[in-house]
User: What shape does this take?
Amino acid sequence: MSELRETRLEKGKALAALGQGPYALRFEPSHRTAELQAAHADLPNGEERDVAVAVAGRVMTRRVMGKLAFFTLADESGPIQLYLEKATLAGSMPEDPEAFAHLTSLVDAGDLIGVQGTLRRTDRGELSVKVLQWTMLSKSLQPLPDKWHGLADVEKRYRQRYLDLIVSPDTRETFRRRALAVSAIRRWLDERGFLEIETPVLQSVPGGADARPFETHHNALDLPLTLRIATELHLKRLVVGGFERVYELGRIFRNEGISTRHNPEFTMMELYQAFADVEEVIEITETLITKAAIDATGTSVVTVHRPDGGTEEIDLGQPWRRARMIDLVEEATGVAVHPSQPVEQLRALAAQHGVSVNPRWGSGKIIEELFEHTAEHTLIAPTFVTGHPVEISPLARVDRNDPHLTERFELFVGARELANGYTELNDPVEQRLRFEEEQAAKDAGDAERGTVDEDYLRALEYGLPPTGGLGIGMDRVAMLIAGVNSIKEVILFPTLRPEVF
Assistant: This one.
């Protein structure tokens, strides 16, 4: 590699001596390559079209055959062939009679160049730019991966995402779909009167989720702070203040493990709508995710990866299933469960199914663990899991028909949780009791549990209207829409161990 780099450095010096950079200031393309492919699809084989064009991009492949050469040039929109003829290049650039020789000997795969010329379709049907002039835009000192094998090293793909994007159109398409899905969600919310809000990333009291926070310190104030684990409590403060529809789409940080489903830094969309409840939030969730898929891919059909390693096509446009958590556990175990049951009965059931139980857990938490171990992996088609126990839902309102459950749901697709929503608890007295239970669990050693947020409780005492809230994990939605099975495939720069140089 060092020898190849030195060779390319020498080529750069030779280009500089010719007045060809090797690092240009600017170039003005007249078209993207895909525009040319579409606009001149009618050009017959073997014919030329005297249309002046200028394109710029990266040289992906090169073939030199005597006085002819064929390069593949790719910009963001796709590739196009360059048709290079010694006589044509020399005739159009009298200041460099060896233009063809210099182009073919000093330009490598990976270099960024700009070309001007006309159009020609080869006898084999390949639309090409017949190059009259060329300009070196940026000399690549590193060679591209072998075109037949691509970037096979998975870790290298994540560490050198720029290289992955250069050589893999599929990777570029994945992140294009992600961007379109995010835009679709923003657009839908904006059109319905939701205000996009920015809340603090640095917080003195982390809340809104059960997660271990990242800790930091503000030197000037000598103040311990954490990175936010959710935006929920700040957004609901704004609903107290009179904003009836708010949302935030931003980065969340949780000091947890890394897996195909988890990255310590990820993107969450949270929204809150005054005078709404969980039913309206469920409708919003189904609409948002389906619209995001259609806007990103043109269809509501997605490819879902099953836990058994297989794949399955699912149409998000079909009605989504609803099922209570306790009913799903009963389906999986054959035993009816409910948070009102004595905890000893549920511990025994957990033991029968090989589910480890912490002695501090109550009946509600054990039911959640049973669900995760026996039922969650079966939820391939979109399913709203509802009726979570109060013990595991400290910010959700008690179900109007069952005081042991809450008006909460989690959305699962492909056995992955994508969203979480509920009718918000707006009783400050009840909320304090829930916070104190969280704090007691935290003090007993559960580092992921919440704490008492006195300012949020003070805000509630001024009155939070009936409110529905929703959180959607945008990375997992992107995984669904792109049809990939690892969160690293939809995060441009996932968290990795430091590279040793």
In short: Residues 169-191 form the longest helix (23 residues). The chain has a mean pLDDT of 95.
